[in-house]
Every structure is written in C-alpha cells, then in structure tokens.
Amino acid sequence: MDRLWAPWRSKYIESFSNENPNEKKECLFCEKANSTDDEKNLILLRGEHCYIIMNLFPYNSGHIMVVPYKHTSNFPDLSNDEMLDIMKLIKKGISALEIALKPHGFNIGANLGRVSGAGVAEHLHFHIVPRWNGDTNFMPVISETKVISELLSDTYRKIKDALSRVQD
Ligand SMILES: [Zn+2]
How much distance in Å is there from the Cα of 28 to the middle of ligand 1? Predict the structure, then answer.
C-alpha cells in the first residue's frame, strides 16, 4: 500500500510555493474552482458540491480527482450532501474512465494530512486512478517525460466526452 499511494505527494506545493515565501498563496483547488476557464484548468465536470479535475502530475493515464468546493482539510467537516455528491462524482468518473480508457481496475482514495502524502493537504480531494495489468512497469517512465502534458489535453477531451455519455 505504501508504494501505491506515495506518488501522490507534494508536487503541486513544490511548484507553487517557492517564489515568495512571505506571500500568502491561494489554495490551488479553491483557485481552480473559482476560475472560469475549465478547459485550461482541466476541470472535467462541475457538480453541485464538488468538481472533477485531471491531475496535472498523474500517477497513471486518466488520473482524475473529485474535489469538494468547501475548503477544508478535515473529513468530518463534510455534510451529508457533500459526501453524497462526492460519491456520485466518483461513480460518474469511474463510468467515464471505463468508457474512455477501458482500465482493468482502479485505485480510489484520499490522503488526509501531509504525513499521509497529500500534495495539497489543506483541501480534501479524492483520487481516482485507472489501473492496467502491468502498468507499474511503465508509470515511472511516463511521469518524467514532457510528452505527458500533451497527452493530458487529449485524455481530457476523451474523458469529458465519455462523461457526457454517462447517465446520472
Ligand atoms: Zn481550498
């Protein structure tokens, strides 16, 4: 389990927090939620209480996240409506990934707190990572290449299209 979850670590923080340590940074997930350019931000779907976004530093192709609009790091802060909406979007995300990418399995979950490996520890988010037989062999390779950023927009369109075909 350790190895499976460890890659979801602080790349977001590393890439956003080095410029001026005195300047208070806005939370990445709040910033994305408040923005209007969903395609540029790779936001796939907006629900009532949460949204689906691609992971910029995917652990695997099609790695998406379900993020509540509420800014909290504390899981018990979520209301029943928010929890239900998170589960609904996780379900939709899985269905869309099955259509778009035909994975053999999924890892689904959250890292709560920096010590657990959370990259953005101050704002809860839930990972959905498609898995394929044998994918552990090539993942470290693709995550280090620049090609991934081009692939991300392709994958974005594929998943977005699949999402529009998923029933509620
Ligand atoms: Zn936030």
Answer: 6
Helix ranges (H only) for the chain are 2-5, 11-16, 28-34, 80-101, 139-142, 147-165
Q: What is the pLDDT of residue 89?
A: 98
Question: Could you confirm whether 123 is annotated as catalytic?
Answer: no
**Which CATH architecture does the domain made up of 2-17+28-165 adopt?**
2-Layer Sandwich (3.30)
| 71 Cα to the center of ligand 1, angstroms | 4
Orientation of helix 147-165 relative to helix 80-101, angle to 10°: 110
Domain ranges in the chain are 2-17+28-165
Per residue in 5-57, pLDDT tens?
434 443 444 444 444 544 557 899 999 999 999 999 999 999 999 999 999 88
